[in-house]
Amino acid sequence: MIALCDGMPLVTLPDGTSATFDKHWITASIRIAAEQAGYHRWWLAEHIAESVAVYLQRDFTANIVDIPNLQDAVLNVLQSLGFHDIASHFRLPDPPVRLSLKEIAHEAGDGYELAFFGLLGDRLQHVAGSHAMRLEIHDLSGCVRLMGKRGRLVQTLREEIVGFIRQYGEAAGQSRQGEPLEIQLS
Question: What is the mean pLDDT of the chain?
């Protein structure tokens, strides 16, 4: 028997991939809809996201949920509470995309720097073409340590990676239609 993390179903994306359920993603989407409906810094967004999570954990019988069904669950909660104005603005984007710089460095192998920046650019371009509103890039320190062992100065390499992400991420984000891409680097 396979147990799902926290008893939550996986979220299937339109491209066929799966992601773990993330309440913060739902909360952020509800807050955006609330802002568009005129509710600034709406405090109920977290509670509605929690209600959806409890429903998925306790009452949802499948192991996977697709974006349209998840969106319907949020809309049902909003409408049942009388927030039809927020429900009319609600749209559930793809969940945040997470990239590991250390994994990309491992994948780059012996052609580490040129291959690394090429792979990172490809990943950033792919995310810019998706419906995700947030990109979380992590393992900067691990990546710099790994690539720094190959003869590069750690501080210079760190600055080059951060500069590349800023420059390429900004250009890729501007090419998007609709919502901008938020990038978090850690």
Answer: 86
